[in-house]
Design brief:
The complex is a heterodimer of chains A (447) and B (211). Chain A has 18 helices and 11 strands. Chain A has 447 residues and is of the alpha+beta class. The radius of gyration of chain B is 20 Å and the shape is globular. Classes of the chains: A alpha+beta (447), B alpha+beta (211). At the A-B interface, helix 2, strand 8, strand 10 and strand 11 of A face strand 1, strand 5, strand 6 and helix 3 of B.
Chain lengths: 447, 211
């Protein structure tokens, strides 16, 4: 650690309007305070972007008065990877591979909103097979459980509740195992494709899902027993990060933060997509407008998601052998895969068909994989209710084989704007709780 | 539908560029057009919202495509339109602004697209505002929808649209000293060729592409 109590490396006294600047990077405070005789000094603390409590590479610029935060600002952009720009150089189907990596805790939602936008432009929304719709709902709701678990786990860890963290990740692991079984990957699945999903359910998946539901039904009440009335947990969360309904709407806040104000706005109910209107579940709200309310909303939402998973699994049991991809062969990606002796690979039947039997089949496969399909010109915005709120993809096509523009309205990005409102005037320790209650994922914020 | 405006051209028939196509079809030129304007009545509640926007005199044209309605609004009238929509039509929720760059749409190269949601009526609309590349100014609506603070900074960062009246229009994703606006079509994607086992894979923007 360097010590420079007299000169600031970035701004000499002449450069600042506020007088002398001291840059402190971790030495004994007494040695500095001796040099400061001014009673009204401003202390600006730069927290992050490499800080274990800021939920990823988030930079907080906090102005303090003692332990009270008088001003809080966010610095973002440390995880910007140009995903939207990159998608303009890939085919429509390949776009899924990019956008799944944005909000890495809820990959299926990124895929879903993009795929819904493309399907609307293709005008095939009503042609998506039922099984694909049910599988999408099943995976999204499992994903909501895993995402909320991480939120509760890391939020707990940041206030010192380490057990919440260890059990949260223990349960999340089971969800990721299910993802691996169904999609082949724990994250970055690229499993939803325009027209359906990439693969049918593997044998035995429904049994695994039923076992998971059975275990979670026992374990979710454990979180409630551990946290809901825990005096330390409540003392840290109650009345922290207050944001009421008017504040939420002005700042465009959606998701559990909005529902913690008592307003049951949930796109799955109000603007259903992918057949959500066929499932029986309740929108969870709380009326305290604070971090504790958001925790309870998330906890209750996991139980509701479990209900949806159960119903989806039941429906899938009756859909064995049904198609999972739209019938239009000009859109359906020929991703016929099969388990071979050396793991999963191209289906040998499909290879035999295109290499040995049908020249037409080979041409179609080649054209679809290299060139892709054309999407009629226009623009679409079909938002979904992600674990963090309204996630929408503004998909623009010029009639070509690639997205002309894909912009993602990520809820983490928008909700993070509430940091100042939620934490100014509070204690510095509560800043961490307030941000954890927003549950920002920097991969989604920066994209 | 009427007065479809071309926003670009597409050449060739087979989609591929730079193959030395000798079939003759490579010389085909087709206009790229976006969905054209809709005529009244637009149907359902669309007309009610259109009437409200017309009171501000700012409505340029209306596009209805795939059951989504887009109101094209003159840029100087955007704040008035947004205020009417928020206060009278109860579009409480703005899902931000997204920039789109149409380099061949002369005089209207930069588009700013706003998605509004009325939770009261459960309706969604889209506002589209354009500005020429030479004069990339659009009035800010942060005063009406505070949520657009970061969204407008993002559109400035990536497209160079200057939102007049924004409280602090600075870059948000790219570093403060970054030159250029990366998501414009004239900004290269970048990347280097990758060599693997003797073969070379060019960067994505230099690979064979289909239009």
């Amino acid at each position: 650690m360097t010590t420079s109590t007299s000169e600031d490396a970035y701004a000499s006294s002449a450069d600042t309007t506020g007088g002398r600047v001291f840059t402190v990077t971790g030495q004994d405070w007494d040695s500095i305070s001796a040099a400061i005789d001014d009673a009204d000094e401003r202390i600006v603390v730069n927290m992050g972007p490499q800080h274990p409590s800021t939920h990823g590479v988030l930079r907080l610029i906090l102005e303090l008065e003692g332990e009270t935060v008088t001003e809080a600002r966010c610095g973002i952009g440390y995880l910007h990877t140009g995903i939207e720009k990159n998608m303009e150089y890939r085919s429509w189907t390949q776009g899924v591979t990019f956008c799944t990596r944005m909000d890495y805790l809820s990959p299926f939602y990124n895929e879903m909103t993009y795929v819904l936008g493309v399907e609307r432009l293709l005008d095939i929304e009503d042609d998506i097979p039922e099984k694909a719709q049910v599988m999408r709902v099943l995976l999204m709701e499992l994903n909501r459980i895993s995402s909320h678990l991480v939120c509760i786990a890391t939020g707990g860890m940041e206030i010192g509740a380490l057990t919440v963290m260890t059990i949260g990740f223990r349960e999340r692991e089971m969800v990721l195992d299910l993802f691996e079984l169904i999609t082949g990957l724990r994250m970055n699945h690229a499993f939803f494709r325009p027209g359906g999903v990439a693969q049918d359910l593997p044998p035995g998946a429904l049994d695994e899902i039923r076992d998971f539901v059975k275990i979670m039904k026992k374990r979710l009440p454990e979180y409630a027993a551990l946290c809901n009335a825990n005096p330390i947990f409540k003392a840290r969360l109650d009345n922290v990060g207050h944001l009421d309904l008017a504040g939420c709407l002005a700042l465009g806040i959606s998701g559990p933060v909005l529902r913690s104000t008592g307003y049951g706005w949930d796109l799955r109910k109000t603007q259903p997509y992918s057949g959500y209107e066929d499932y029986d579940f309740d929108v969870q709200t709380w009326d305290t407008c604070d971090a504790y309310g958001r925790f309870r909303v998330r906890l209750n939402e996991m139980s509701e998601s479990l209900r949806i998973v159960e119903q989806a699994a039941e429906r899938l049991a009756g859909l064995e052998g049904a198609p999972v991809m739209v019938a239009d062969k000009k859109v359906a990606w020929p991703s016929q895969l099969a388990i071979g002796s050396d793991g999963m690979g191209n289906s040998l039947d499909h290879i035999r068909h295109i290499m040995g039997e049908s020249m037409e089949g080979l041409i179609h496969h080649f054209k679809l994989v290299t060139e892709g399909f054309r999407v009629p010109a226009g623009q679409a915005y079909v938002p979904v209710e992600s674990p963090r709120g309204e996630l929408g993809a503004h998909v623009v096509s010029d009639g070509g084989t690639r997205p002309f523009r894909a912009h993602f309205r990520d809820p983490s990005f928008t909700n993070l704007q509430a940091t100042s409102v939620m934490s100014e005037g509070g204690m510095i320790a509560d800043v961490i709780v307030a941000i954890a209650s927003i549950d920002p994922v920097m991969g989604g914020v920066d994209r | 539908m009427s007065e479809i405006e071309p926003v670009g051209t597409r050449q060739g028939m087979f989609g591929v560029e730079g193959t030395g196509d000798t079939s003759g079809y490579g010389g085909l030129v087709a206009p790229v057009t976006l969905p054209g304007s809709a005529e009244r009545p637009f149907g359902g509640w669309y007309d009610e919202v259109a009437d409200a926007i017309e009171t501000t005199m700012g409505l340029e044209r209306v596009v209805v495509h795939r059951n989504e309605i887009t109101f094209h609004v003159r840029r100087q009238d955007l704040p008035a339109v947004a205020k009417v929509l928020r206060d009278e039509q109860r579009f409480e929720f703005c899902a931000g602004v997204s920039g789109v760059h149409y380099p061949d749409d002369t005089g209207r190269e930069l588009h700013a697209v706003y998605h509004l949601l009325s939770m009261t009526h459960n309706r969604r609309i889209r506002l589209e505002v354009t500005c020429p590349d030479a004069d990339p100014h659009i009035p800010s609506i942060v005063a009406i929808y505070p949520t657009n603070d970061w969204h407008e900074r993002e559109a400035w960062d990536f497209f160079g649209i200057i939102f007049d009246g924004h409280p602090a229009l600075t870059r948000i994703q790219m570093p403060d000293d970054w030159p250029g606006h990366p998501q414009r079509k004239d900004y290269p994607l970048g990347g280097i060729p990758v060599e693997y086992k003797g073969g070379t894979v060019p960067p994505p923007d230099q690979r064979r592409s289909y239009n």
